[in-house]
Specification:
The chain contains two helices and no strands. With about 55 residues, it is mostly helical.
Length: about 55
């Protein structure tokens, strides 16, 4: 169960970071920022899942 918590935390933090970077750092549109946050969060979830199952 701890692995799923770690995966969820990685997903949320990576998605939030990418959203803030795109939206405020690069002044992107809301739609673009959300899209990048979802993609980046998904990649982070995949990486965290693979590391948790090593």
């Amino acid at each position: 169960m701890k692995a799923w918590r770690t995966i969820a935390l990685h997903t949320a933090v990576a998605g939030g970071f990418m959203f803030l970077l795109q939206r405020y750092g690069l002044s992107a549109t809301l739609e673009s920022s959300l899209l990048w946050a979802i993609v980046f969060g998904g990649c982070a979830a995949g990486l965290a899942y693979s590391q948790a199952n090593r």
